[in-house]
Prior knowledge:
Elements: E1 2-4, H1 6-10, H2 16-28, E2 39-41, E3 48-55, E4 60-68, E5 76-84, E6 90-95, H3 97-115, E7 122-126, H4 130-142, E8 148-153, H5 158-165, E9 172-177, H6 180-184, E10 189-192, E11 212-215, H7 222-227, E12 230-233, E13 251-253, H8 254-258, E14 272-275, H9 280-295
Parallel strand pairs: 1-6, 7-8, 7-10, 8-9, 10-11, 11-14, 12-13, 12-14
Antiparallel strand pairs: 2-3, 3-4, 4-5, 5-6
Helix pairs in contact: 2-3, 2-4, 2-9, 3-4, 3-9
Amino acid sequence: MKVIDFETIRRMNIVPEQCYRWAEKMIADKKKTILPPKISLRPREGIFVNTMPSILDNGFGGVKVVTRYPEREPSLDSKILLMDVKTGEFLALMDANWITAMRTGAVAAHSVITLAKTDYETVAIMGLGNTARATLLILASVEKNRHFKIKILRYKQQAEDFARRFEDLENIEFTIVDTYEELIKGSDVVISCVTYFADDVCADEYFDEGVTVIPVHTRGFTNCDLFFDKVYADDTGHVDNFKNFSKFKKFAEMCDVVNGVVPGRENDKERILAYNIGLSIHDINFAGHIYDLLKEEKTAISAKNLPDADMHDPSDKFWI
């Protein structure tokens, strides 16, 4: 079993467009997978330990464990155990921090491109960590011919640092605002990568007609559940326990939208909410592709140079 660490994955220099293609394919193929709802353990407020198993139709399976501890830096951490479904062999123990950020960013970018109104331009982003960076990097890379007006919230030095990170991209201009109301009002797309909100972000009247809201970590927008025209999610089993689920005006899964089973946005006045809860099929798919790239030596890094973890598994049927 190979051990594939964070730096190995980062040094592979996988391009944002590739991440988007991996996510796009897995969204379309979601119903070909085995995907139970994740198990979420919450030992106390603000902390979670999520266990997320899945099996894909491409021969890979596995489990991802992601934890959030607010006092830790960074607060989020995750690992993947990758397996060969055909043989039951465990292939790799992998760091999943790069994978989590990039697959989350890719899925959020996919929701923007699929559900935003026709000529969307102004995108509000809150929670300016790695997930937000991944989302904007992938969105701007895939939508190279679109000019973006990005609104971000002033907080300590984070907004300035975020804008500086993307100063080389010619299709982006930034505006820094001071309140959530300023951030959301007038925005065509609202992306929240904030991991925790105790209450909703702002009142209904600040969400314009035609807005698409993507709360990556689900918190802060429960008022939108009640008056938005449509709600989409990556998986029903991950949202049907939401307190307002029965009150959604219209609900569907994103895989049904991309496969033409149900309509997505039908006009530029609809207010649309997209709950991308985060499915392990994307993590396992990314992990499988990364494993193959390393094994086939299609990058500068080879699996031959990576450490092995030998569990010294029992070889006899009876060993007690």
